[in-house]
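Review session, final week

We close the course with one last complete record, chosen because it touches almost every idea we covered. It is L-rhamnose catabolism isomerase, a protein from Halioxenophilus aromaticivorans with 430 residues. Go through it on your own first, then we will talk.
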Amino acid sequence: MKTLINESLVAEQNQSLMPALQEDYDHLGAKLQRSGIDIEAVTQQAAKFQVAVPSWGTGTGGTRFARFPGIGEPRNIFEKLEDCSVINQMVRCTEKVSPHFPWDKVSDFTELKGFADDLGLGFDAVNSNTFQDQPGQEHSYKYGSLTNTCPQTREQAVAHNIECIEWGKTLGSTALTVWIGDGSNFAGQSHFQRQLERYLDSAKEVYNALPDDWSMFIEHKMFEPAFYSTVIQDWGTNVLCAMELGEKAKSLVDLGHHAPNVNIEMIVSRLIQFQKLAGFHFNDSKYGDDDLDSGSLHPFQQFLIFNELVDAEHRNQPGFNPAYMLDQSHNVTDPIESLMNSAEEVQRSYVKALLVDRDALYGFQDSNDAIMAANTLKAAFNLDVAPILAMARVRNGGAIAPIATYRESGYRAAAGEKRPSSGHSGSGIV
Ligand code: LRH
Ligand code: MN
Ligand code: MN
């Protein structure tokens, strides 16, 4: 496997940090032992954790007002994969990349697959894009894509989703994520039922093109770009459509796509219960679809979501196999640093959730001991599991201190030399 950061630099940095890490790890191990938890078992589970990186997250996102490009931004999918491989080399829990078409322009998918293989990377769900018009496109998505009142426009959107499946097959992906921006901006502009009927008709065509081992991930979002109504606006409409389509269709939860204060962990629980949880787009948010770094604002919420996920794992719930992906937009940070940090934050929530004393929690739930139930969750959340995460990373060949080692490598400055700024390019994020 080709690595882009000098392995001896990683080894050197790790060596100097190892004595302190070992001390902290042993101390945490002794503490956990008092609660009957074997730290080694937890570290092994942490080391198996994976979350996919979005190809579009490697460039500076920008807003609808401005985009301020960073140094050495990737100019194409090959350079995006290089950055993803650096992320994975440091954190060793991001082996897969979720591509977005046609933002990721590819002329030879076999070549792309080979390029990723060499970097030790694979592909997670492929994302279609019918929320923008592309140059030369015959029919406009101004008034919707899969739900457009014009049949030719709907056909064009269906065909794009089907070509994404074809491309994904070559890349070794097994899922298509469909998010549409379709909706309306004025009361009365669209007939709610007819619009959803058109969605289902189109989505069925896409669904029917799925290979046997593929899934279709339906992603909901409350608003934006449509500001009065959105067709797939919440998990209710989402799961109704997934049920209507069939077993291969499941609901994807993007953390930023809900009304403020919505109990997302409960939505997750419901979807698990009915075997309809596709997976996640992790990010954090204060106001709306902010796409901030995962766990940067609401680490407790993220932990509570993982509490549901680990509970499902613990109870061996049938059909439970969610896909974990990041979906972020970076405006003021180096995207590589944000993505490394975020992967670690998601992994941190997972590890903390593993440490919940589940039998005690079930007991407190059954006896209606609210304060002790809450304290049981808090006890796990309040533990500092950083030594477990660092040890899992180093055992997988990663860096004890990902950001410090990455900065020391000078990768970004070198990318700046190799990739002169176009002043534009990047993710093309909306
Ligand atoms: C929509 C969304 C969806 C898109 C991505 C770029 O807001 O979350 O997942 O594909 O952003
Ligand atoms: Mn998303
Ligand atoms: Mn979003």
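Two points worth writing down before the exam:
Confidence is low (pLDDT under 50) at residues 424-430.
The longest strand covers residues 249-254.
Good luck, everyone.
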